[in-house]
Specification:
2 copies of one chain form a homodimer. Chain A is mainly α. Chain A has 10 helices and 3 strands. In chain A, strands 1-3-2 form a 3-stranded antiparallel β-sheet. In chain A, strand 2 and strand 3 form a beta hairpin. The longest helix of chain A is centred in the C-terminal third of the chain and has 33 residues. At the A-B interface, helix 1, helix 3, helix 4, helix 5 and helix 8 of A face helix 1, helix 3, helix 4, helix 5 and helix 8 of B. The first copy, chain A, binds a DNA duplex (30 and 30 nucleotides) through helix 3.
Chain lengths: 253, 253
Amino acid sequence: MRLHPALEYSTRDVLPFRSATLSTRIVHEVREALFAKELRPGDFLGTEKDLAQRFNVSRIVARDALRTLEAQGIVEIKVGSGGGARVASGNARLFAEALAVQLDLTGVSVGEIMEAQRAIESLAAELAAINATPGDHARLRQLVEEAERKIDDVAAYTRCSREFHLAVAEASHNRVLVVQLISLQHVSWPAHNPTLTAEVAHRILDVHRQLAHLIETRDAEGARRLMDEHVQMIAGRRIAEHRGRDAAARDCC
Amino acid sequence: MRLHPALEYSTRDVLPFRSATLSTRIVHEVREALFAKELRPGDFLGTEKDLAQRFNVSRIVARDALRTLEAQGIVEIKVGSGGGARVASGNARLFAEALAVQLDLTGVSVGEIMEAQRAIESLAAELAAINATPGDHARLRQLVEEAERKIDDVAAYTRCSREFHLAVAEASHNRVLVVQLISLQHVSWPAHNPTLTAEVAHRILDVHRQLAHLIETRDAEGARRLMDEHVQMIAGRRIAEHRGRDAAARDCC
DNA sequence: CGGGGTTAAATATAGTATCTTTATTATCGT
DNA sequence: ACGATAATAAAGATACTATATTTAACCCCG
Protein backbone atom coordinates (compact mmCIF):
# COMPACT_ATOMS: atom_id res chain seq x y z
CA MET A 1 0.00 0.00 0.00
CA ARG A 2 1.29 3.43 -0.85
CA LEU A 3 2.27 5.65 2.03
CA HIS A 4 1.42 9.28 2.29
CA PRO A 5 4.00 11.42 0.45
CA ALA A 6 4.43 13.70 3.45
CA LEU A 7 6.38 10.94 5.16
CA GLU A 8 8.32 9.76 2.11
CA TYR A 9 11.59 11.48 2.91
CA SER A 10 11.31 12.03 6.62
CA THR A 11 14.47 10.09 7.39
CA ARG A 12 16.65 12.27 5.19
CA ASP A 13 17.24 14.76 8.03
CA VAL A 14 19.38 12.61 10.29
CA LEU A 15 18.66 13.18 13.92
CA PRO A 16 21.01 15.89 15.26
CA PHE A 17 20.55 14.61 18.83
CA ARG A 18 17.90 12.29 20.18
CA SER A 19 15.25 14.52 21.68
CA ALA A 20 14.85 12.25 24.69
CA THR A 21 13.49 9.15 22.95
CA LEU A 22 13.16 7.80 19.44
CA SER A 23 9.38 7.55 19.62
CA THR A 24 8.97 11.24 20.52
CA ARG A 25 10.84 12.11 17.35
CA ILE A 26 8.31 10.18 15.30
CA VAL A 27 5.43 11.79 17.17
CA HIS A 28 6.85 15.25 16.56
CA GLU A 29 7.40 14.68 12.86
CA VAL A 30 3.84 13.49 12.38
CA ARG A 31 2.44 16.44 14.32
CA GLU A 32 4.51 18.91 12.35
CA ALA A 33 3.37 17.29 9.10
CA LEU A 34 -0.18 17.74 10.32
CA PHE A 35 0.21 21.43 11.14
CA ALA A 36 2.00 21.99 7.84
CA LYS A 37 -1.05 20.54 6.07
CA GLU A 38 1.06 17.74 4.61
CA LEU A 39 -1.23 15.31 6.37
CA ARG A 40 -5.01 15.52 6.47
CA PRO A 41 -7.70 13.47 8.18
CA GLY A 42 -8.05 10.07 6.53
CA ASP A 43 -4.51 9.90 5.16
CA PHE A 44 -2.74 6.58 5.57
CA LEU A 45 0.28 6.76 7.86
CA GLY A 46 1.52 3.19 7.49
CA THR A 47 1.67 0.08 9.62
CA GLU A 48 3.87 -0.46 12.66
CA LYS A 49 6.35 -2.23 10.41
CA ASP A 50 6.27 0.56 7.82
CA LEU A 51 7.00 3.24 10.40
CA ALA A 52 9.73 1.13 12.00
CA GLN A 53 11.50 0.70 8.65
CA ARG A 54 10.95 4.32 7.62
CA PHE A 55 12.49 5.69 10.80
CA ASN A 56 14.98 2.83 11.07
CA VAL A 57 13.89 1.73 14.52
CA SER A 58 12.39 -1.38 16.05
CA ARG A 59 8.68 -2.07 16.00
CA ILE A 60 8.49 -1.34 19.72
CA VAL A 61 9.48 2.26 19.10
CA ALA A 62 6.99 2.63 16.26
CA ARG A 63 4.36 1.13 18.51
CA ASP A 64 5.16 3.56 21.32
CA ALA A 65 4.80 6.44 18.89
CA LEU A 66 1.46 5.15 17.63
CA ARG A 67 0.17 4.71 21.19
CA THR A 68 1.04 8.33 21.91
CA LEU A 69 -0.46 9.63 18.67
CA GLU A 70 -3.57 7.57 19.31
CA ALA A 71 -3.94 8.92 22.84
CA GLN A 72 -3.65 12.47 21.49
CA GLY A 73 -6.42 11.72 19.01
CA ILE A 74 -4.14 12.26 16.03
CA VAL A 75 -4.36 8.77 14.52
CA GLU A 76 -6.78 5.87 14.50
CA ILE A 77 -5.45 2.33 14.39
CA LYS A 78 -7.16 -0.65 12.85
CA VAL A 79 -6.03 -4.26 12.92
CA GLY A 80 -6.20 -6.75 10.09
CA SER A 81 -5.64 -6.64 6.40
CA GLY A 82 -5.95 -3.11 5.07
CA GLY A 83 -5.45 -1.89 8.63
CA GLY A 84 -2.75 0.31 10.10
CA ALA A 85 -2.65 3.91 11.26
CA ARG A 86 -4.67 6.67 9.62
CA VAL A 87 -4.93 10.36 10.50
CA ALA A 88 -8.08 10.79 12.57
CA SER A 89 -10.69 13.46 12.16
CA GLY A 90 -11.50 15.69 15.12
CA ASN A 91 -12.98 14.06 18.19
CA ALA A 92 -14.54 16.50 20.63
CA ARG A 93 -15.23 13.86 23.28
CA LEU A 94 -11.60 12.82 23.45
CA PHE A 95 -10.53 16.39 23.79
CA ALA A 96 -13.18 17.19 26.37
CA GLU A 97 -11.84 14.40 28.52
CA ALA A 98 -8.31 15.71 28.10
CA LEU A 99 -9.39 19.11 29.41
CA ALA A 100 -11.31 17.50 32.24
CA VAL A 101 -8.18 15.62 33.28
CA GLN A 102 -6.04 18.73 33.10
CA LEU A 103 -8.47 20.81 35.14
CA ASP A 104 -8.65 18.01 37.69
CA LEU A 105 -4.87 17.74 37.92
CA THR A 106 -4.46 21.51 38.11
CA GLY A 107 -6.99 21.52 40.92
CA VAL A 108 -9.12 24.39 39.68
CA SER A 109 -12.14 25.38 41.72
CA VAL A 110 -15.77 25.08 40.69
CA GLY A 111 -15.96 28.86 40.73
CA GLU A 112 -13.22 29.20 38.14
CA ILE A 113 -14.89 26.68 35.86
CA MET A 114 -18.29 28.34 36.13
CA GLU A 115 -16.83 31.76 35.34
CA ALA A 116 -15.36 30.42 32.13
CA GLN A 117 -18.60 28.63 31.34
CA ARG A 118 -20.47 31.91 31.74
CA ALA A 119 -18.25 33.57 29.15
CA ILE A 120 -18.61 30.69 26.70
CA GLU A 121 -22.36 30.27 27.06
CA SER A 122 -23.20 33.97 26.94
CA LEU A 123 -21.39 34.32 23.65
CA ALA A 124 -22.95 31.08 22.40
CA ALA A 125 -26.43 32.45 23.10
CA GLU A 126 -25.60 35.72 21.38
CA LEU A 127 -24.27 33.97 18.28
CA ALA A 128 -27.13 31.47 18.30
CA ALA A 129 -29.59 34.34 18.01
CA ILE A 130 -27.66 35.51 14.96
CA ASN A 131 -26.77 32.22 13.25
CA ALA A 132 -29.39 29.63 14.23
CA THR A 133 -31.22 27.86 11.39
CA PRO A 134 -34.89 26.80 11.47
CA GLY A 135 -33.61 23.31 12.30
CA ASP A 136 -31.78 24.66 15.36
CA HIS A 137 -34.93 26.50 16.47
CA ALA A 138 -36.94 23.28 16.20
CA ARG A 139 -34.37 21.35 18.22
CA LEU A 140 -34.38 23.93 21.01
CA ARG A 141 -38.19 23.90 21.20
CA GLN A 142 -38.19 20.12 21.18
CA LEU A 143 -35.70 19.95 24.07
CA VAL A 144 -37.78 22.39 26.12
CA GLU A 145 -40.88 20.23 25.58
CA GLU A 146 -38.99 17.07 26.46
CA ALA A 147 -37.73 18.63 29.69
CA GLU A 148 -41.29 19.68 30.53
CA ARG A 149 -42.46 16.07 30.22
CA LYS A 150 -39.60 14.77 32.35
CA ILE A 151 -39.81 17.42 35.04
CA ASP A 152 -40.48 14.85 37.79
CA ASP A 153 -37.55 12.57 36.88
CA VAL A 154 -34.56 14.42 38.31
CA ALA A 155 -31.88 12.45 36.41
CA ALA A 156 -33.64 12.65 33.04
CA TYR A 157 -34.49 16.32 33.54
CA THR A 158 -30.87 17.12 34.40
CA ARG A 159 -29.64 15.31 31.28
CA CYS A 160 -32.19 17.12 29.16
CA SER A 161 -31.18 20.48 30.58
CA ARG A 162 -27.57 19.80 29.74
CA GLU A 163 -28.60 18.88 26.20
CA PHE A 164 -30.38 22.21 25.88
CA HIS A 165 -27.27 24.18 26.81
CA LEU A 166 -25.24 22.16 24.33
CA ALA A 167 -27.86 22.71 21.63
CA VAL A 168 -27.59 26.47 22.13
CA ALA A 169 -23.84 26.20 21.62
CA GLU A 170 -24.38 24.13 18.49
CA ALA A 171 -26.87 26.70 17.21
CA SER A 172 -24.10 29.30 17.44
CA HIS A 173 -22.40 27.38 14.63
CA ASN A 174 -19.06 27.93 16.33
CA ARG A 175 -17.32 24.61 16.85
CA VAL A 176 -14.75 26.05 19.24
CA LEU A 177 -17.50 27.07 21.65
CA VAL A 178 -19.09 23.63 21.34
CA VAL A 179 -15.82 21.85 22.14
CA GLN A 180 -15.09 24.14 25.07
CA LEU A 181 -18.58 23.79 26.51
CA ILE A 182 -18.46 19.99 26.24
CA SER A 183 -15.24 19.90 28.20
CA LEU A 184 -16.42 22.30 30.89
CA GLN A 185 -19.73 20.46 31.28
CA HIS A 186 -17.73 17.26 31.61
CA VAL A 187 -16.27 18.71 34.79
CA SER A 188 -19.00 20.97 36.11
CA TRP A 189 -22.24 19.16 35.38
CA PRO A 190 -23.46 17.01 38.26
CA ALA A 191 -24.28 13.33 37.65
CA HIS A 192 -26.98 13.51 40.28
CA ASN A 193 -28.65 16.75 41.17
CA PRO A 194 -29.41 16.51 44.85
CA THR A 195 -30.54 20.08 45.46
CA LEU A 196 -32.97 20.26 42.56
CA THR A 197 -36.43 21.04 43.92
CA ALA A 198 -39.60 21.15 41.82
CA GLU A 199 -39.67 24.94 42.14
CA VAL A 200 -36.10 25.34 40.86
CA ALA A 201 -36.82 22.91 38.00
CA HIS A 202 -39.79 25.02 36.90
CA ARG A 203 -37.76 28.23 37.10
CA ILE A 204 -35.00 26.70 34.96
CA LEU A 205 -37.50 25.40 32.43
CA ASP A 206 -39.01 28.86 32.20
CA VAL A 207 -35.64 30.46 31.50
CA HIS A 208 -34.90 27.86 28.82
CA ARG A 209 -38.23 28.60 27.17
CA GLN A 210 -37.46 32.31 27.15
CA LEU A 211 -33.97 31.64 25.78
CA ALA A 212 -35.38 29.56 22.92
CA HIS A 213 -37.81 32.39 22.16
CA LEU A 214 -35.15 35.11 22.22
CA ILE A 215 -32.95 33.05 19.89
CA GLU A 216 -35.85 32.43 17.53
CA THR A 217 -36.74 36.13 17.40
CA ARG A 218 -33.04 36.90 16.81
CA ASP A 219 -32.67 39.10 19.91
CA ALA A 220 -28.92 38.64 20.32
CA GLU A 221 -28.45 41.11 23.16
CA GLY A 222 -31.42 39.73 25.09
CA ALA A 223 -30.31 36.13 24.65
CA ARG A 224 -26.84 37.05 25.80
CA ARG A 225 -28.02 38.83 28.92
CA LEU A 226 -30.49 36.13 29.92
CA MET A 227 -27.95 33.35 29.43
CA ASP A 228 -25.38 35.30 31.42
CA GLU A 229 -27.78 35.66 34.31
CA HIS A 230 -28.90 32.03 34.03
CA VAL A 231 -25.35 30.64 34.17
CA GLN A 232 -24.59 32.85 37.15
CA MET A 233 -27.57 31.32 38.93
CA ILE A 234 -26.32 27.83 38.08
CA ALA A 235 -22.85 28.80 39.27
CA GLY A 236 -24.25 29.86 42.61
CA ARG A 237 -25.99 26.51 43.01
CA ARG A 238 -22.90 24.50 42.02
CA ILE A 239 -20.65 26.39 44.41
CA ALA A 240 -23.13 25.93 47.24
CA GLU A 241 -23.41 22.20 46.42
CA HIS A 242 -19.65 21.90 46.45
CA ARG A 243 -19.36 23.56 49.83
CA GLY A 244 -22.05 21.20 51.10
CA ARG A 245 -20.19 18.18 49.77
CA ASP A 246 -16.95 19.30 51.42
CA ALA A 247 -18.75 19.79 54.72
CA ALA A 248 -20.33 16.33 54.43
CA ALA A 249 -16.93 14.82 53.71
CA ARG A 250 -15.55 16.47 56.84
CA ASP A 251 -18.43 15.16 58.93
CA CYS A 252 -18.30 11.54 57.83
CA CYS A 253 -14.55 10.93 57.46
CA MET B 1 8.56 0.81 47.20
CA ARG B 2 4.99 0.95 48.42
CA LEU B 3 2.33 1.42 45.77
CA HIS B 4 -0.56 3.74 46.10
CA PRO B 5 -3.46 2.11 47.99
CA ALA B 6 -5.95 3.12 45.29
CA LEU B 7 -4.48 0.42 43.08
CA GLU B 8 -4.06 -2.27 45.75
CA TYR B 9 -7.09 -4.33 44.89
CA SER B 10 -7.80 -3.31 41.33
CA THR B 11 -7.52 -6.86 40.01
CA ARG B 12 -10.23 -8.24 42.30
CA ASP B 13 -12.99 -7.28 39.83
CA VAL B 14 -12.25 -9.75 37.08
CA LEU B 15 -12.73 -8.28 33.68
CA PRO B 16 -16.34 -8.91 32.55
CA PHE B 17 -15.31 -8.62 28.91
CA ARG B 18 -12.19 -7.09 27.49
CA SER B 19 -13.11 -3.52 26.63
CA ALA B 20 -11.17 -3.67 23.37
CA THR B 21 -7.65 -4.10 24.74
CA LEU B 22 -5.95 -4.87 28.02
CA SER B 23 -4.06 -1.61 28.10
CA THR B 24 -7.23 0.48 27.79
CA ARG B 25 -8.57 -1.26 30.87
CA ILE B 26 -5.52 -0.12 32.84
CA VAL B 27 -5.84 3.40 31.45
CA HIS B 28 -9.50 3.56 32.43
CA GLU B 29 -8.91 2.31 35.94
CA VAL B 30 -6.22 4.88 36.56
CA ARG B 31 -8.37 7.68 35.16
CA GLU B 32 -11.33 6.66 37.28
CA ALA B 33 -9.11 6.52 40.36
CA LEU B 34 -8.01 10.05 39.48
CA PHE B 35 -11.53 11.43 39.16
CA ALA B 36 -12.56 9.61 42.33
CA LYS B 37 -9.73 11.44 44.15
CA GLU B 38 -8.11 8.13 45.03
CA LEU B 39 -5.06 9.33 43.15
CA ARG B 40 -3.56 12.80 43.43
CA PRO B 41 -0.66 14.53 41.69
CA GLY B 42 2.64 13.14 42.89
CA ASP B 43 1.33 9.71 43.89
CA PHE B 44 3.47 6.77 42.87
CA LEU B 45 1.77 4.48 40.37
CA GLY B 46 4.45 1.82 40.12
CA THR B 47 6.98 0.66 37.58
CA GLU B 48 6.21 -1.09 34.31
CA LYS B 49 6.89 -4.38 36.05
CA ASP B 50 4.66 -3.48 39.02
CA LEU B 51 1.72 -2.62 36.81
CA ALA B 52 2.24 -5.73 34.69
CA GLN B 53 2.13 -7.95 37.78
CA ARG B 54 -0.75 -6.06 39.36
CA PHE B 55 -2.96 -6.40 36.28
CA ASN B 56 -1.52 -9.79 35.40
CA VAL B 57 -0.37 -8.81 31.92
CA SER B 58 2.93 -8.58 30.10
CA ARG B 59 5.22 -5.58 30.42
CA ILE B 60 4.36 -4.47 26.88
CA VAL B 61 0.73 -4.01 27.86
CA ALA B 62 1.72 -2.05 30.95
CA ARG B 63 4.01 -0.02 28.75
CA ASP B 64 1.24 0.69 26.23
CA ALA B 65 -0.96 1.90 29.06
CA LEU B 66 1.80 4.14 30.42
CA ARG B 67 2.47 5.60 26.94
CA THR B 68 -1.22 6.49 26.68
CA LEU B 69 -1.41 7.93 30.18
CA GLU B 70 1.76 9.89 29.54
CA ALA B 71 0.39 11.30 26.28
CA GLN B 72 -2.76 12.38 28.08
CA GLY B 73 -0.64 14.16 30.67
CA ILE B 74 -1.86 11.96 33.49
CA VAL B 75 1.46 10.43 34.48
CA GLU B 76 5.12 11.34 34.32
CA ILE B 77 7.70 8.62 33.82
CA LYS B 78 11.27 8.64 35.07
CA VAL B 79 13.97 6.08 34.40
CA GLY B 80 16.48 4.76 36.84
CA SER B 81 16.46 3.76 40.47
CA GLY B 82 13.58 5.40 42.28
CA GLY B 83 11.97 5.99 38.91
CA GLY B 84 8.67 4.75 37.52
CA ALA B 85 5.32 6.35 36.87
CA ARG B 86 3.91 9.11 39.05
CA VAL B 87 0.67 11.04 38.72
CA ALA B 88 1.54 14.32 37.02
CA SER B 89 0.41 17.75 38.05
CA GLY B 90 -1.40 19.88 35.50
CA ASN B 91 0.46 20.80 32.35
CA ALA B 92 -1.18 23.63 30.45
CA ARG B 93 1.22 23.43 27.52
CA LEU B 94 0.43 19.80 26.86
CA PHE B 95 -3.25 20.52 26.92
CA ALA B 96 -2.92 23.58 24.73
CA GLU B 97 -1.27 21.46 22.10
CA ALA B 98 -4.04 18.88 22.37
CA LEU B 99 -6.63 21.57 21.67
CA ALA B 100 -4.57 22.94 18.82
CA VAL B 101 -4.43 19.50 17.23
CA GLN B 102 -8.15 18.94 17.65
CA LEU B 103 -9.06 22.31 16.20
CA ASP B 104 -6.76 21.61 13.28
CA LEU B 105 -8.29 18.17 12.68
CA THR B 106 -11.80 19.53 13.01
CA GLY B 107 -10.91 22.20 10.48
CA VAL B 108 -12.37 25.17 12.36
CA SER B 109 -12.01 28.60 10.83
CA VAL B 110 -9.97 31.51 12.14
CA GLY B 111 -13.23 33.38 12.68
CA GLU B 112 -14.57 30.74 15.03
CA ILE B 113 -11.37 30.74 17.04
CA MET B 114 -11.28 34.50 17.35
CA GLU B 115 -14.89 34.65 18.48
CA ALA B 116 -14.12 32.28 21.32
CA GLN B 117 -10.98 34.21 22.12
CA ARG B 118 -13.02 37.38 22.39
CA ALA B 119 -15.30 35.81 24.99
CA ILE B 120 -12.37 34.48 27.01
CA GLU B 121 -10.29 37.64 26.92
CA SER B 122 -13.15 40.03 27.68
CA LEU B 123 -14.00 38.09 30.80
CA ALA B 124 -10.31 37.82 31.69
CA ALA B 125 -9.97 41.61 31.52
CA GLU B 126 -13.07 42.10 33.64
CA LEU B 127 -11.87 39.68 36.29
CA ALA B 128 -8.33 41.07 36.15
CA ALA B 129 -9.71 44.48 37.10
CA ILE B 130 -11.34 42.86 40.10
CA ASN B 131 -8.71 40.34 41.21
CA ALA B 132 -5.30 41.64 40.10
CA THR B 133 -2.63 42.02 42.79
CA PRO B 134 -0.02 44.79 42.89
CA GLY B 135 2.39 42.24 41.44
CA ASP B 136 0.09 41.69 38.46
CA HIS B 137 -0.18 45.45 37.93
CA ALA B 138 3.61 45.74 37.90
CA ARG B 139 3.94 42.91 35.39
CA LEU B 140 1.42 44.48 33.02
CA ARG B 141 3.18 47.85 33.19
CA GLN B 142 6.53 46.16 32.64
CA LEU B 143 5.25 44.34 29.54
CA VAL B 144 3.89 47.55 28.08
CA GLU B 145 7.26 49.24 28.57
CA GLU B 146 9.09 46.29 27.06
CA ALA B 147 6.85 46.37 23.99
CA GLU B 148 7.50 50.10 23.66
CA ARG B 149 11.25 49.48 23.54
CA LYS B 150 10.89 46.68 20.98
CA ILE B 151 8.40 48.46 18.74
CA ASP B 152 10.74 48.32 15.74
CA ASP B 153 11.45 44.58 16.00
CA VAL B 154 8.31 42.96 14.59
CA ALA B 155 8.97 39.44 15.93
CA ALA B 156 9.92 40.58 19.43
CA TYR B 157 7.04 43.05 19.57
CA THR B 158 4.57 40.33 18.52
CA ARG B 159 5.89 37.99 21.22
CA CYS B 160 5.65 40.73 23.79
CA SER B 161 2.09 41.54 22.81
CA ARG B 162 1.10 37.94 23.21
CA GLU B 163 2.71 37.91 26.65
CA PHE B 164 0.63 40.93 27.61
CA HIS B 165 -2.63 39.20 26.72
CA LEU B 166 -1.56 36.14 28.67
CA ALA B 167 -0.56 38.30 31.64
CA VAL B 168 -4.06 39.80 31.70
CA ALA B 169 -5.52 36.30 31.82
CA GLU B 170 -3.15 35.39 34.64
CA ALA B 171 -4.15 38.54 36.49
CA SER B 172 -7.75 37.30 36.41
CA HIS B 173 -6.58 34.51 38.74
CA ASN B 174 -8.79 32.08 36.84
CA ARG B 175 -6.71 29.13 35.68
CA VAL B 176 -9.39 27.87 33.31
CA LEU B 177 -9.22 31.09 31.33
CA VAL B 178 -5.42 30.91 31.27
CA VAL B 179 -5.43 27.36 29.92
CA GLN B 180 -8.05 28.18 27.30
CA LEU B 181 -6.27 31.30 26.17
CA ILE B 182 -2.95 29.48 25.85
CA SER B 183 -4.53 26.88 23.60
CA LEU B 184 -6.36 29.40 21.42
CA GLN B 185 -3.23 31.56 21.08
CA HIS B 186 -1.35 28.42 20.07
CA VAL B 187 -3.61 28.24 17.03
CA SER B 188 -4.45 31.85 16.29
CA TRP B 189 -1.31 33.81 17.05
CA PRO B 190 0.89 34.35 14.01
CA ALA B 191 4.55 33.34 14.10
CA HIS B 192 5.43 36.21 11.80
CA ASN B 193 3.25 39.25 11.59
CA PRO B 194 3.48 40.38 7.98
CA THR B 195 0.79 43.07 8.02
CA LEU B 196 2.04 44.85 11.15
CA THR B 197 2.83 48.44 10.25
CA ALA B 198 4.38 50.97 12.60
CA GLU B 199 1.05 52.76 12.87
CA VAL B 200 -0.84 49.60 13.86
CA ALA B 201 1.88 48.72 16.37
CA HIS B 202 1.50 52.12 18.03
CA ARG B 203 -2.27 51.81 18.15
CA ILE B 204 -2.02 48.37 19.77
CA LEU B 205 0.52 49.61 22.30
CA ASP B 206 -1.81 52.47 23.19
CA VAL B 207 -4.71 50.08 23.80
CA HIS B 208 -2.51 47.87 25.98
CA ARG B 209 -1.47 50.89 28.01
CA GLN B 210 -5.10 51.88 28.53
CA LEU B 211 -5.99 48.29 29.47
CA ALA B 212 -3.23 48.18 32.07
CA HIS B 213 -4.53 51.48 33.48
CA LEU B 214 -8.18 50.36 33.59
CA ILE B 215 -7.17 47.14 35.37
CA GLU B 216 -5.06 49.08 37.85
CA THR B 217 -7.89 51.50 38.62
CA ARG B 218 -10.23 48.51 38.99
CA ASP B 219 -12.63 49.62 36.24
CA ALA B 220 -14.01 46.17 35.41
CA GLU B 221 -16.66 47.29 32.95
CA GLY B 222 -14.25 49.58 31.12
CA ALA B 223 -11.55 46.92 30.89
CA ARG B 224 -14.07 44.43 29.59
CA ARG B 225 -15.37 46.77 26.88
CA LEU B 226 -11.93 47.85 25.72
CA MET B 227 -10.62 44.28 25.56
CA ASP B 228 -13.70 43.19 23.65
CA GLU B 229 -13.18 45.93 21.09
CA HIS B 230 -9.44 45.22 20.93
CA VAL B 231 -9.86 41.49 20.26
CA GLN B 232 -12.45 42.26 17.59
CA MET B 233 -9.88 44.46 15.87
CA ILE B 234 -7.29 41.68 16.08
CA ALA B 235 -9.85 39.21 14.74
CA GLY B 236 -10.44 41.41 11.73
CA ARG B 237 -6.72 41.51 11.00
CA ARG B 238 -6.28 37.74 11.41
CA ILE B 239 -9.21 36.96 9.12
CA ALA B 240 -7.91 39.35 6.48
CA GLU B 241 -4.43 37.82 6.76
CA HIS B 242 -5.90 34.38 6.35
CA ARG B 243 -7.82 35.37 3.25
CA GLY B 244 -4.61 36.85 1.88
CA ARG B 245 -2.70 33.65 2.57
CA ASP B 246 -5.35 31.57 0.82
CA ALA B 247 -5.25 33.84 -2.19
CA ALA B 248 -1.45 33.65 -2.28
CA ALA B 249 -1.62 29.86 -2.13
CA ARG B 250 -3.99 29.88 -5.09
CA ASP B 251 -1.68 32.14 -7.07
CA CYS B 252 1.57 30.25 -6.55
CA CYS B 253 0.44 26.61 -6.66
C1' DC C 1 -22.77 -18.20 -17.18
C1' DG C 2 -23.70 -15.08 -13.26
C1' DG C 3 -24.67 -13.99 -8.43
C1' DG C 4 -24.36 -14.60 -3.51
C1' DG C 5 -22.74 -16.49 0.48
C1' DT C 6 -19.19 -19.23 2.85
C1' DT C 7 -14.52 -20.26 3.65
C1' DA C 8 -9.72 -19.74 3.54
C1' DA C 9 -5.63 -16.96 3.12
C1' DA C 10 -3.28 -12.81 3.92
C1' DT C 11 -2.31 -9.06 6.85
C1' DA C 12 -1.75 -6.30 10.83
C1' DT C 13 -2.34 -5.34 15.59
C1' DA C 14 -2.47 -7.40 20.43
C1' DG C 15 0.11 -9.63 23.46
C1' DT C 16 4.18 -12.67 25.41
C1' DA C 17 8.99 -13.61 26.52
C1' DT C 18 13.73 -12.53 26.90
C1' DC C 19 17.34 -9.93 26.01
C1' DT C 20 20.93 -5.66 25.75
C1' DT C 21 21.73 -0.81 26.43
C1' DT C 22 21.48 3.44 28.77
C1' DA C 23 20.16 6.81 32.18
C1' DT C 24 19.49 7.85 36.92
C1' DT C 25 19.55 7.27 41.69
C1' DA C 26 21.03 5.22 45.97
C1' DT C 27 24.60 3.41 48.64
C1' DC C 28 28.79 2.51 50.49
C1' DG C 29 33.51 3.31 51.40
C1' DT C 30 37.17 6.42 52.08
C1' DA D 1 31.61 15.31 52.08
C1' DC D 2 32.63 13.33 48.02
C1' DG D 3 33.44 9.95 44.52
C1' DA D 4 33.22 5.29 42.80
C1' DT D 5 30.11 1.59 42.47
C1' DA D 6 26.01 -1.05 42.55
C1' DA D 7 21.19 -1.24 41.85
C1' DT D 8 17.23 0.04 39.45
C1' DA D 9 14.15 1.02 35.74
C1' DA D 10 13.01 2.61 31.32
C1' DA D 11 14.49 2.48 26.28
C1' DG D 12 15.07 -0.37 22.75
C1' DA D 13 15.71 -4.87 20.04
C1' DT D 14 14.39 -9.50 18.52
C1' DA D 15 11.57 -13.26 17.85
C1' DC D 16 7.74 -15.25 18.86
C1' DT D 17 2.11 -16.63 19.35
C1' DA D 18 -2.76 -15.21 19.34
C1' DT D 19 -6.48 -12.79 17.46
C1' DA D 20 -9.13 -9.78 14.58
C1' DT D 21 -10.31 -8.13 10.02
C1' DT D 22 -10.33 -7.69 5.31
C1' DT D 23 -9.63 -9.55 0.73
C1' DA D 24 -10.11 -12.96 -2.35
C1' DA D 25 -10.96 -17.37 -3.82
C1' DC D 26 -14.31 -20.81 -4.19
C1' DC D 27 -18.29 -23.40 -4.45
C1' DC D 28 -22.99 -23.99 -4.80
C1' DC D 29 -27.19 -22.73 -6.72
C1' DG D 30 -30.22 -20.57 -10.03
